[in-house]
Amino acid sequence: MADAHTRLSEGQGAELVWRDSRDKRLTPAEALKIYALKTAPAFEAALYCGLRLVGPADQYAEPIARLAKHLGIGFQILNDLQDWRGDDFNKLTLGGDVLGGRPTVLWALAIEGLGRDERRDLEQLVATGEATPAVFAQIRSLFEQAGAFTKALALVDEHRREAENVADSLSPVALRHLAHHLIATVLEQPAATARPRRPLAVPAR
Question: Which of 4, 5, 11, 161 could be stapled to 41 by a disulfide with Cβ–Cβ 3.0 to 4.6 Å?
């Protein structure tokens, strides 16, 4: 638990350092590393502690860490995407993350995918900090031009597949099905953008 809290704090610290930095360049790999640090340890600690309460859990430490990593990253990417859809339980302001200075993978993908002039336009829009519908529309347009939303959804699919591969390796079967249920719940995509999921096998009787 202490180790999980330490890594989570490191991830949150990295986010705050980036937020206060003058240089707003960010690679997708850097964004995903922050996600892995700030979110994955929470899943890992919860899963591992549950297993440890049942009995010896050393054999699960490595696969649970990998499962948590993919869950945490996928969850954060979906959270970023939700920022551009709006909801009534988490994101109170549409597009608020980008103007709030959070290092998101959408921002990193946009910076990576835009040309020099468009990248400069995006950075200037965010630097002004004007939370108006017109500004958000321009930012969204540049994100779409860079393919950021499509690429982010592809990353979610990739991390879902990796998480499912880990789940397939778990035993007993009850734990395997619990892991698949967790993946389907945590990495649930909005209906408009959802991808087909691997069907769960029915436990043998």
Answer: 4
